[in-house]
Amino acid sequence: MIRALVTGGSGTIGTAIARALAERGYHVYVHTHGRPDRAEAITAEIVARNGSAEVVRFDVTDAAETRHVLEQLLEAGALQVLVNNAGIHNDAIMPGMQLEQWFPVIDVSLNGFFNVTQPLLLPMIRTRWGRIINISSVTAIAGNRGQVNYAAAKAGLHGATRSLALELASRGITVNTVAPGIIVSPATEGVFPQEAIERLVPMKRAGRPEEVADLVSFLASDRAGYISGQLISINGGMI
């Protein structure tokens, strides 16, 4: 059975991705750091639907802890699907942004990508098959006032994706980035009222987490074996 790790798996998009990968028949590790109860609930739901899943907990910004936990998982074999979904916001316009707002956002999305991905690569390479999907944001493409930190962190994934895809292409491993736009979630409900969505999104609606998850699930499949190094937007035509 293919084993998949979804970082930030207790969040709205992460939850949908974990469900979709479980439906594909993968064993899914639902990662969490601060919301173990939520991760346990998602895992129990997947198992109740005859899927295979378990919770894994660590701080992606702690390189030593991350490597220790991943090494334990690797004792059972390579993880061949990795979805780097963990990310945080701490918004402020740049003139008023504090160091405490800049560094943690970069640390989770960008340093977290390295901390999680690097230990998994050699075992994945040995199997000569793998799928790495990095979750970015339309903000990293178009920019957004008050999110210089978040845009920088997520845009960094675009360059990393392209370069890593070149390094791994001959080994049967694909690396892609998915950049969602406005997606229905508790975090966006108060930020994007319907009139704002109609102004910003040509399709006049927010996306559903399941739509992002379907795209990720496809990229994590054999059918996407010739797609690599790509930045794929899912945003209702925003850009």
Describe the 3D structure:
The chain is an alpha/beta fold. The chain is built from nine helices and seven strands. It has a seven-stranded parallel β-sheet, sandwiched between helices. Helix 1 links the parallel strand 1 and strand 2. It is globular and about 50 Å long.
Strand/helix succession: EHEHEHEHEHHEHHHE
CATH superfamily: NAD(P)-binding Rossmann-like Domain
Radius of gyration: 17 Å
The structural domain count equals 1
Could you say which overall geometry the principal axes of the C-alpha atoms support?
A: globular
Distance between the termini: 38 Å
Quickly give the CATH architecture.
3-Layer(aba) Sandwich
Please, what is the average pLDDT? 97
Biggest sheet descriptor: 7 strands, parallel
Low-confidence stretches: none
Structural category is: alpha/beta
What is the helix tally?
9
Strand content: 15-25%
Strand arrangement, major sheet: 3-2-1-4-5-6-7
Looking at this protein, list some descriptive labels.
47% helix, 239 residues, globular, Rossmann fold, alpha/beta
Q: Can you describe this structure in just a few lines?
A:
This protein has 239 residues and is an alpha/beta fold. It has helices spanning 12-23, 36-48, 63-74, 99-127, 139-142, 148-168, 186-189, 194-200, 209-219; strands spanning 3-6, 27-32, 52-57, 81-84, 130-135, 173-180, 231-234. It has one domain (3-234): Rossmann fold (3-Layer(aba) Sandwich), CATH 3.40.50.720.
